[in-house]
Amino acid sequence: MSKVPTTVITGFLGAGKTTLIRHLLQNARGRRLALVINEFGDVGVDGELVKGCNDAACPEEDIVELANGCICCTVADDFLPTMQKLLDRPNPPEHIIIETSGLALPKPLVKAFQWPDIRTRATVDGVVALIDADAVAAGRFATDEAALAAARAADPSLDHESPLEELFEDQLACADMVVLNKTDLVDAEVLPAVQNQIAGETRPGVKIVRADHGAVDIGALLGITAAAEDDLDTRPSHHDVDPDHDHDDFESFVVKGGEPTGSNALLAALAALIAEHDILRVKGMVAVEGRPARLVIQAVGPRIQHYFDRAWKPDEIRLSQLVVIGQKGLDRAAISAALAPILAGQPAGAQA
User: What Å distances lie between residue 35 and 18, 199, 259, 309, 333, CA to CA?
Assistant: First the structure.
């Protein structure tokens, strides 16, 4: 019996993984796909954005969400049972796509394919690392050497790498292909330097594909035939020596509300909060008063994208929910106090 090929799509928060997957599903060319989505946080935003985008290729029953727990830390509890259920179906998928949390290390997930119950039935066709070209160009993943030197002088026990930099390097080191996304946001003269920086973190022979809005040909992403679980030794990780891995360096929380009267005050508040608190990521759905469709908010660093997607369903509660993700120490009280009144439909600056 042939093994079911599985593609692992990794990449830091906001790199565009969900957009890439939507593109894959909309261009599936008749392939029967299953999708496993893992998010860091209590609210599953990515799954909501994917569901229904191509019912023929990937109906909702073939979309499995693993929320509130990073997949690389919950392999035995969450991932393996999910894979077994997919593979045990009378008509199993032709290809499985796994979207990891932006904070996940890909190597533990790939290693799980060595488990006896999975090894004979599925294989890692390829690990695809999605990289936000604009974030790299802005130095988001580069250590501030002067600040690092000062911190290490104060505390010699500090690791050399920052949490962001470690994740960035681990995701690239495990990749069989790199998609350099959001290249439309980077000046043409800067892009070669960004690509060279990425190439310096990848294994020999790994291809780098440039993309805008995750638009990569499905034939390039699926069918790599890497069998990544068989060559783990060539995929170095910062956690090879110390296998313990947690996400104490990062935290997330949800701010909920009803129906704001518009989007301008919310967008302005988000921009100010992101700058003041160095928020890494904001994503969620907002029910704007008088608008029949959901307002999707996607913020990556200082970039805030917003658009209306589908209409609210008749049986849906018009609820606004924003997931806020950042490094440890976020001032939850201040951020919530600024956002909650706006999401509740109160004037900006009002107290909840």
Answer: 11, 28, 31, 21, 35
- Name the H helices within 121-174: 133-137, 145-154, 163-173
Query: What's the CA gap between 165 and 168, in Å, rounded?
Result: 5
Q: Read off the tokens for 34.
A: 């299953």
Report yes or no on whether pTM surpasses 0.85: no
First to last CA, the chain: 60
Asked if residue 239 lies in contact with residue 245, where contact means CB atoms within 8 angstroms, the answer is: yes
pLDDT tens, 158-167?
A: 444 556 788 8
CA-CA distance, 72 to 197, in Å (whole number)? 26
Q: What share of the chain is helix, strand, coil (3-state, %, to 5)?
A: 35, 25, 45
pLDDT tens-digit map of 187-216: 999 999 999 999 999 999 899 999 888 888
Q: Dihedral of the CA atoms 152, 155, 158, 160 (nearest 10)?
A: 10
- Within 287-349, strands assigned E span 293-300, 303-311, 320-327
In whole angstroms, give the CA distance from residue 12 to residue 301: 12
* Residue 201 DSSP symbol: T
Q: Torsion over CA of 267, 272, 277 and 280, rounded to 10 degrees?
A: 40
